[in-house]
Design brief:
With 596 residues, this protein is an alpha/beta fold. The protein contains 20 helices and 21 strands. A 6-stranded mixed sheet has the order 1-7-8-11-9-10, sandwiched between helices. A 5-stranded parallel sheet has the order 4-3-5-2-6, sandwiched between helices. A 5-stranded parallel sheet has the order 13-12-19-20-21, sandwiched between helices. Helix 11 runs parallel beside helix 20 and helix 15 runs parallel beside helix 16.
Length: 596
């Protein structure tokens, strides 16, 4: 197959010479003319002094100009991609992390700023002015230049790819006119990303060309795109797409040509509907004003077999994660992999113990050889001990000769980040009970010391301590940190929890159940409840919740996989019944969920 040509309608461009005021230049022309006029009348020595004076003044002006040049910043025009943060390039991530100023495009990408920018970076909106009206391309160019003139590293974050249907030409011209240096970082364009996420290939062996059109309200010659073997991609509003339908039909394109309409492409709110060219004008009238991509051509017929994104088991689900942001990273990433959007609501706050002397004494005993074992039952315990080590100027070498136990994989990973490989991990249940089962009893021949250091939360259960004592160990059960109930979430979040706006909630411990109910109330009956283990499930049931998903293993990965399997079951049941696939929040029940 030969390479298919790509035909794109040019975007209207504003004159670049009106974008910014020209820099003021100081001319010495008058001075030169006067000097020439009087040259013959001046003594040689006077002329020499005057010439030197002019040279000194010029040097001073040159120094000032050089300093002004040094104050100018550098602008990087960076493609933000079509919506999915995972499509951001590596170079774009690096530049965002180093940026002093970020100038956003018309599409709000605060998610990228929060995720990749350093604290303190200034964020400017190039989409809308103070009056709420959209900025013109000339106004956006002035904003970028003004930011660069203040100095520092400026990232101009542009929707999709900077070179495709954006104001790049005008803004680059403005930078060059102002003497501002710049570079361009390409991004993934909606032109090919959105159809790919909708399951629509751009070409087949019979495709003659791919025509990309961005009407922007203009009248176009649609006969250029009427070839039956051409794939036409239309970017724009509902009116643009309706005009495309009328134009292509008038140009002779068959009314039976299949069409795919995708809004909010590459995000978890993406929606794709199919139509024909004959019904496209009617379908376009219901578009909500969001940027929409229409793919017109026989390639759309392959969507059903190629669909992969909107068929993810948790696609579009809004999942509540009652955990601290620091601990929720693994869960939120895995939920995103399955098509869900995770919203973290902290239910606990981790604080130092009220009396730190016990912890200080234990850490000093660890260094002096008081203990045979140290057992970590949470990531928070690892963090608490590590902070004490830092306070005392210690590092992982202080664990030399000490045996280390971890309750599970997540805690073990936290230890490995510190350079410590645990000696003991439970093979079965990753809990205090599982750790106790794996822990060897004290042997007065093999174990020179019979004492164990357990840095734990103030609300930890006595299961592990009692079992170790029964097995012959002496245990220093030390409060390394306190878990206190977090402040209630914002009113909209509380309302969403109670009214069923969340499709699921994932509980990772009994305390997350108790605290969520305490600060925000019970989840709505329609909300799917997933629990990490039997103890957590029991607490959920005690609070009147029916547990729909129980993780096969007490780990974040297993918890999310269990929820994804449940989502697959719901999709399969809907398909078998010939019903549309609805999220749990779309089929709310009025009855309060009760435990079985």
């Amino acid at each position: 197959m030969t390479n298919s040509p790509v035909v794109a309608e040019p975007a209207l461009e504003a004159p670049v010479d009106t974008l910014v005021d020209a820099p003021v230049e100081v001319s010495a022309l008058t001075e030169v003319v006067d000097a020439k006029k009087d040259r013959d009348e001046l003594p040689a020595q006077s002329r020499s002094r005057k010439s030197a004076g002019r040279s000194g003044a010029a040097a001073k002006k040159s120094d000032k100009a050089a300093k002004a040049d040094k104050l100018l910043g550098h602008v990087s025009f960076v493609g933000a991609g079509p919506g999915d943060p995972g499509l951001l390039t590596v170079r774009a991530v690096d530049l965002l992390g180093a940026a002093d100023v970020v100038v956003l495009d018309q599409g709000s990408r605060q998610d990228l700023v929060a995720r990749f920018c350093r604290a303190g970076a200034e964020v400017l909106d190039a989409g809308f002015g103070d009056d709420g009206q959209p900025l013109t391309r000339a106004a956006r160019a002035k904003l970028v230049v003004r930011a660069a003139k203040a100095g520092g590293r400026v990232v101009r974050l542009m929707d999709g790819d900077p070179s495709t249907f954006t104001g790049l030409v005008e803004e680059v011209a403005a930078c060059r006119k102002a003497g501002v240096t710049f570079d361009v970082v390409p991004g993934v364009s909606a032109v090919n990303a959105v159809p790919a996420y909708a399951g629509v290939p751009m070409t087949t062996p019979s495709t003659s060309s791919v025509n990309v059109v961005h009407p922007a309200g203009r009248a176009l010659d649609w006969s250029r795109h009427a070839d039956a073997d051409a794939t036409v991609v239309v970017l724009g509003t509902g009116d643009d797409i309706a005009a495309a339908a009328r134009g292509l039909l008038a140009a002779g394109r068959s009314a039976a040509t299949p069409v795919a309409l995708t809004s909010h492409g590459t995000t978890t709110t993406q929606t794709t509907t199919t139509a024909t060219l004959g019904t496209l004008e009617t379908a376009a009238t219901v578009i909500d004003g969001s940027p929409t991509t229409a793919v017109i051509g026989d390639v759309v017929a392959l969507r059903e077999q190629n669909s992969w994104y909107e068929t993810k088991p948790l696609f579009g689900w809004r999942v509540l994660v009652p955990r601290t942001k620091e601990q929720a990273g693994g869960i939120t990433a895995r939920l995103s992999d399955h098509g869900a959007t995770a919203e973290v609501v902290p239910t606990i706050s981790v604080e130092p113990p009220r009396t730190p002397q016990q912890m200080e004494k234990a850490v000093k005993g660890l260094v002096t050889g008081r203990y045979e074992w140290i057992g970590f039952t949470s990531v928070n315990a690892v963090r608490a001990v590590r902070e004490k080590f830092t306070e005392y100027g210690l590092d992982a070498r202080a664990f030399s000769g000490l045996k280390v136990a971890a309750v599970g994989g997540v805690t073990a990973d936290a230890l490995r980040e510190w350079g410590i490989e645990p000696d003991l991990l439970p093979e079965g249940e990753q809990s205090a009970a599982g750790l106790l089962e794996a822990w060897p009893p004290y042997d007065d021949v093999l174990d020179p010391i019979n004492r164990v250091f357990l840095p734990r939360a103030d609300i930890a259960t006595d299961t592990l301590v009692a079992g170790l004592v029964e097995n012959g160990w002496e245990v220093d059960d030390v409060t390394a940190y306190r878990t206190v109930r977090a402040a209630p979430p914002a009113a909209p979040v509380r309302d969403a929890i109670k009214t069923g706006a969340f499709d699921a909630v994932v509980f990772t411990s009994s305390s997350t159940v108790r605290n969520l109910v305490g600060i925000a109330g019970k989840p709505h009956p329609s909300t799917v409840v997933a629990c990490i283990g039997p103890a957590t499930a029991k607490t959920a049931e005690e609070h009147g919740l029916r547990v729909d998903v129980l993780a096969a293993e007490p780990s974040a990965e297993s918890l999310v996989e269990g929820l994804a399997a449940y989502g697959d079951l719901l999709r399969a049941a809907a398909a078998e019944a010939g019903e549309p696939v609805l999220r749990p929040s779309q089929k709310k029940s009025s009855a309060r969920r009760r435990a079985r």
